[in-house]
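--- STAGE predict ---
source: upstream dedup step, 1 unique chain passed
mode: sequence only
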Amino acid sequence: MSAAFELQGDGSHGELRLFSPLGTRLVTASWSALGAQLSTPEGARSFDSLDALAEQALGQSVPLAALPDWLAGRPWAGADHQLGPEGFQQLGWQVTTLRLAEGQLDARRAAAPSVLLRVRLELPA
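--- STAGE serialize ---
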């Protein structure tokens, strides 16, 4: 799957908007301490947690709460991590930050089913 996104906030509250390659908004996910909400063209659904929303929306468990920190090149404060030569491991994912200065972050979950999350950031000129 390929999509553009806008992300605001952090692991405790925020909003993530996904867009198709043509720029059409696909979904909006928002979260806070009270829970999470997923809005699509078909309507809105509420979830107890951001993890439950991610599992339902993406079909896989993806640690969306950690994503803002990972995009900044650092481990999320909400879970233990291990530093390594290419980045760090956290929540069962290998986060590779070697090309972050070029706007690329890779996060790979080796456990079945294997998932690769590749993010390309538009960096300010």
